[in-house]
Amino acid sequence: METSGFSVCGRFYGNSHSPKSYYHRRFPAWLGRHARRQDSQWCMEFADALMSHKLSGTPSCVSCPVPFSAPDKGSACQDRQHHSGGESHTCPRDHESRSGPALSGHPSLQKLDAAQRGCQPDMGEIWKSRGGPIRVTRERVMSPVFLSDGSERTTGPGRVGTRVATCPPVRVSPIRADHCYSLQGSREETLAPPRSPSMAHHALDGGDIPAFVQPTVGSAVAQRPGVTGRRGDLSRSPGPCFVGLAPERLNLSSMGLPDNVIDTIQSARAISTRNAYDGKWRAFEEWCVNAGCIALQSPVPVILTFLQSLLDKGLAFSTIKVYLAAISACHIGFGDKTAGQHPLICSFMKGARRLRPVSKSLVAPWDLTTVLNALSHPPFEPLHQVDLKWLSIKTALLLALASAKRVSDIHALSVSTSCMQFIRGGSKVLLKPNPAFMPKVFNPTLSCLPIELSALSPLSDAEERQQLHALCPVRALRVYVDKTASFRGTEQLFVSWAPPHRGKPLTKQRLSHWIVEAITVAYESSGLHPPAGLRAHSTRGMATSWAMFRGTSVEEICAAASWATPHTFASVEIIRLGNSFFIDWDRKMYYPKSDTPAQARTTTLNEELGQIKYIFSDKTGTLTQNIMTFNKCSINGKNYGELFDFSGQRVEITEKTERVDFSWNKLADPKFIFHDHSLVETVREGSVEAQGFFRLLALCHTVMPEEKTPVRNPEGKTTLYCKGADTIIYERLHPNCRKLMEVTTQHLNEYAGDGLRTLVLAYKDLDEDYMEDWRRRHHEASVSMEGREERLDELYEEIEKDLMLLGASAVEDKLQDGVPQTIEQLAKADIKIWVLTGDKQGVCSGEDLRLELLRVACMCQTVICCRVTPLQKAQVVQLVKKYKQAVTLAIGDGANDVSMIKAAHIGVGISGQEGMQAVLSSDFSFAQFRYLQRLLLVHGRWSYLRMCKFLQYFFYKNFTFTFVHFWYAFFSGFSAQTVYDEWFITIYNLVYTALPVLGLSLFDQDVNDRWSFQYPQLYVPGQLNFYFSKKIFVRCMLHSCYSSLVLFFVPWASMVDTVRDDGKDIADYQSFALLAQTCLLMIVNFQLCLDTHYWTAVNQFFVWGSLSAYFAISFTMYSNGMFLIFTSAFPFIGTARNSLNQPNVWLTVLLTTLLCILPVVAIRFILLQLSPTVNDKHRRSGYAFSHSQGYGDLVTSKWVLLKRKNRPPLFARAPDSAVAQNQPQHYRTIAEENEEPQSP
């Protein structure tokens, strides 16, 4: 009889044909995991004993050496009974009664049996001895568990044909019966006693929620893919795995969610994350075993000691965070907090971050020359003979380096004829992404440009020609496309080359792995160790840096890499991050009722907030409160909800108007307010129409725009109730309802005029025979495979005709506080607002109609698009983006606004009554629509102004620095000699000019937020991109050119024939270099002072601190001590000491600074008088020191040096009001609402 193998301590080993070396190879791994429990020598002896036993005979149970029959005999080892050949016998632990081969005398087997004793409790006996359910938790050592049925199944490490299931031993303790769950996840009152040890499967949840596998006879064990990181899943192979990470699943289970919903929620973690958690949790488990505690319930000191050991090993802080995340995911937690939220652990991580700060290397992650040289040699060449794997990864890497595109952009490339074109005989290829691809950063001018790759031209040298030919991306791409054409099953460019997914589309993660693998193999083939931390995204920086080094223009690099502007190369992220923090910290945008602050969910769009031209807004929930209050109704032609006096005149309803008393109805909402007593009297009198009206509202209570419900009353009569918009219901009414429809239409018009939302209600009595026949046909149509939708629509149209009109309802959805004021302010800022709402289809159906709509709508300040679907909302936004070169913003609060939010340049989400879908898809979020004016008119305008000033100053200081070398070249014979000291060149942008521009870009404001609200016209220059255009860039270059002329020739003229007081000549290179760089630093700092409108202590510290640092560093570097220590590094010995003590040097610095600064001041004064800008018209020249605003009272009073005791606090809490965001605010703070408004 042929066997499938044997199992030892939960490990299943091979089959009868496996060689002996296989068992010896598997045992060392087992010994490493159980060295603390068993002796390694007797374990190996036991393997030899099992191997010496004839495995071709009947295999034996591991718990005792009694043989059991093969699977084809249908027998099983269940509980303590073993069936062999249809006979059963008792299997005691002491091995007193046995049948089969005598292995009991082997000492290794006796030791194994003794070790197993106590680890595998009798679940049936324990269950019977308990009065209630039990808790089953898994231990670390694994033991065999035998299934109760005789069916074949896949068990163990994925092998077929054995009935030995690997399962950990169990530890039993009582639990509460009301927290027990069955296999399907349904909650049960009690648990049935287990029929075999296999029922005590995996307690993956911890706490009070066990998970049991209950195999039934004739059915296989439920197989689910193993999810790494879940407790108890010690095998990566598919197996019976349930539930998941304990704290998260326990919280979700307490909410009453079923297991399949929880599994879907927990699948939000990527597979890579779960794999990372799995390895980290295993390491923590082993640590806890050595510490003598259970990992699932380990105390805080054990966790802290484990994390400290990781810190002592030198692991990075980010790696320690992954360890803690894995522990938090699997640990049962401490009370209502996870392990990672414990205060001591949080303090530990904070201290670890300070001890091991996160740093970013400024060195290239890998050497491009090494990689390119390896790509021209085996295993990547010859290209037509290499394996498809090497061809694939080489093509991917060459394409990434040649195009400088993101991995997502390369992944979207297609081989269709419209997206890939080889032109000029294969010397050039044009590549385009799939038309449905949406790039990560959308730019209308660059995203549509194709990738253009040209074949590399051969050089004169044969070796160089051969290497260049091997690195040609066009050649590699053509060969790859030709080789994959035979099995390609998709139009995507890169496909999988290995079975079983051969020819299928490649994922972005796998494409990234290809690029990283190509770099790794290139290093290994060169005999070098590949660098750690390789990323596929590094090809962008490597390609663009190398292109810039080779002389490629910045504009060409930006176009190739899909970068919008050249300032991508500048260090602007810290500026954007700082402006994002200002939005997050703004207490003027905090909504206390829901405890919701404003949130900047991105750091790359702050400056675009100051350039918005079109706002697309949803209505319900965005402009309104989304709280529907029953206000009026029309029942059988009678209007309810309005009050009339004795003369028939309408009475205005106020807070003093008498309310209807609903105390007689215990089910009435005490918060409901209604004033018309006639409606209540009609209902109490038992009016059939009124009762049917409210019965319909009670049954059709959802927010569906059109809803129908068939209802059978106690008498057996069936009635179809319908509600919906008037245009939909009126088409389905019976002709006899014409007069009632006219009266109801008048009431609907009145309700709409009052700003109420209306619905029409109707019904239809159905015959019982007809209803049964209709149900039968509906069932047939719903299960049909062809034309199902058409057949269902016909049935619905059939049953919904000839309806009888009941009436109409009107509910009130009030506007949010501050919405009218916000819309007024945005309109004054020349921002056009489009309100998109409704559900009716058919808008913008043709190209000519879309253009006509755009032409007419753009002539209006405010546009309302009624009854458009979510897809049409996005189409309207894309229409404006396509034909109007303007920055758009979309704002919404619900899932139906997500497509519109994603289609606009900037998406804003409101956390309202409809969930968080819009917030999660947005770039900025807050709680109320009125905060939008502060986001745009204050933060957006400031961010745009600061970024433009940063760019102007950045180009000015660097162009001025560089142009001096051009003038110096005429005197140095156009050699490579630099004007400045090499150390000054190194730290010029790093130290001397970095902080001042940072202070300008973070804190500057031309006017305060009060003036921004009072003069919304100040927002208009941002829409026109007035502060940084081509004209501004050219003017900046001319300004730099003039400054460099003055900066070079004035110092040169002052020193060419100058001598010191002692008669010695000072016109040497070192003295001139020191004088030139001193003048340069003075000029750029004073120019920054002229550009600063708002001075703070930080600005002062950065400006004067940088100048002080320059002189301190100069005297230090040019000192005798530095020259003696580093002779070759600091050759300018004594230059600062000997030059800066001469009066003519300081006079030259003063003259150069005045010649550069005075023309700027003069030109600005002339432009202010002749052609003032919008800001100049509305901003006073003495803004910061005027008598009526700012610090004017301090300047003119004697209390200038004294502390004001009655000054309001910096962050004064003020109640939220309807127009709080439109009230003036002092420019020194962001929350001083208690201050009295002052006129500017």
From TrEMBL:
<feature type="transmembrane region" description="Helical">
    <location>
        <begin position="1072"/>
        <end position="1090"/>
    </location>
</feature>
<keyword id="KW-0812">Transmembrane</keyword>
<dbReference type="Pfam" id="PF00702">
    <property type="entry name" value="Hydrolase"/>
</dbReference>
<feature type="transmembrane region" description="Helical">
    <location>
        <begin position="983"/>
        <end position="1003"/>
    </location>
</feature>
<dbReference type="GO" id="GO:0046872">
    <property type="term" value="F:metal ion binding"/>
</dbReference>
<dbReference type="GO" id="GO:0006310">
    <property type="term" value="P:DNA recombination"/>
</dbReference>
<dbReference type="GO" id="GO:0140326">
    <property type="term" value="F:ATPase-coupled intramembrane lipid transporter activity"/>
</dbReference>
<dbReference type="GO" id="GO:0045332">
    <property type="term" value="P:phospholipid translocation"/>
</dbReference>
<dbReference type="Pfam" id="PF16212">
    <property type="entry name" value="PhoLip_ATPase_C"/>
</dbReference>
<keyword id="KW-0479">Metal-binding</keyword>
<dbReference type="InterPro" id="IPR023214">
    <property type="entry name" value="HAD_sf"/>
</dbReference>
<keyword id="KW-1278">Translocase</keyword>
<dbReference type="InterPro" id="IPR013762">
    <property type="entry name" value="Integrase-like_cat_sf"/>
</dbReference>
<dbReference type="GO" id="GO:0007030">
    <property type="term" value="P:Golgi organization"/>
</dbReference>
<keyword id="KW-1133">Transmembrane helix</keyword>
<keyword id="KW-0067">ATP-binding</keyword>
<dbReference type="GO" id="GO:0005886">
    <property type="term" value="C:plasma membrane"/>
</dbReference>
<dbReference type="InterPro" id="IPR032630">
    <property type="entry name" value="P_typ_ATPase_c"/>
</dbReference>
<dbReference type="GO" id="GO:0005524">
    <property type="term" value="F:ATP binding"/>
</dbReference>
<protein>
    <recommendedName>
        <fullName>P-type ATPase C-terminal domain-containing protein</fullName>
    </recommendedName>
</protein>
<dbReference type="GO" id="GO:0005802">
    <property type="term" value="C:trans-Golgi network"/>
</dbReference>
<keyword id="KW-0233">DNA recombination</keyword>
<dbReference type="InterPro" id="IPR001757">
    <property type="entry name" value="P_typ_ATPase"/>
</dbReference>
<feature type="compositionally biased region" description="Basic and acidic residues">
    <location>
        <begin position="79"/>
        <end position="98"/>
    </location>
</feature>
<dbReference type="InterPro" id="IPR011010">
    <property type="entry name" value="DNA_brk_join_enz"/>
</dbReference>
<feature type="transmembrane region" description="Helical">
    <location>
        <begin position="1102"/>
        <end position="1133"/>
    </location>
</feature>
<keyword id="KW-0472">Membrane</keyword>
<dbReference type="InterPro" id="IPR023299">
    <property type="entry name" value="ATPase_P-typ_cyto_dom_N"/>
</dbReference>
<dbReference type="GO" id="GO:0015074">
    <property type="term" value="P:DNA integration"/>
</dbReference>
<feature type="region of interest" description="Disordered">
    <location>
        <begin position="73"/>
        <end position="108"/>
    </location>
</feature>
<feature type="transmembrane region" description="Helical">
    <location>
        <begin position="950"/>
        <end position="971"/>
    </location>
</feature>
<dbReference type="InterPro" id="IPR018303">
    <property type="entry name" value="ATPase_P-typ_P_site"/>
</dbReference>
<dbReference type="InterPro" id="IPR036412">
    <property type="entry name" value="HAD-like_sf"/>
</dbReference>
<dbReference type="GO" id="GO:0003677">
    <property type="term" value="F:DNA binding"/>
</dbReference>
<dbReference type="GO" id="GO:0016887">
    <property type="term" value="F:ATP hydrolysis activity"/>
</dbReference>
<feature type="domain" description="P-type ATPase C-terminal">
    <location>
        <begin position="919"/>
        <end position="1172"/>
    </location>
</feature>
<keyword id="KW-0547">Nucleotide-binding</keyword>
<keyword id="KW-0460">Magnesium</keyword>
<feature type="transmembrane region" description="Helical">
    <location>
        <begin position="1032"/>
        <end position="1052"/>
    </location>
</feature>
<dbReference type="InterPro" id="IPR044492">
    <property type="entry name" value="P_typ_ATPase_HD_dom"/>
</dbReference>
<dbReference type="InterPro" id="IPR023298">
    <property type="entry name" value="ATPase_P-typ_TM_dom_sf"/>
</dbReference>
<keyword id="KW-0238">DNA-binding</keyword>
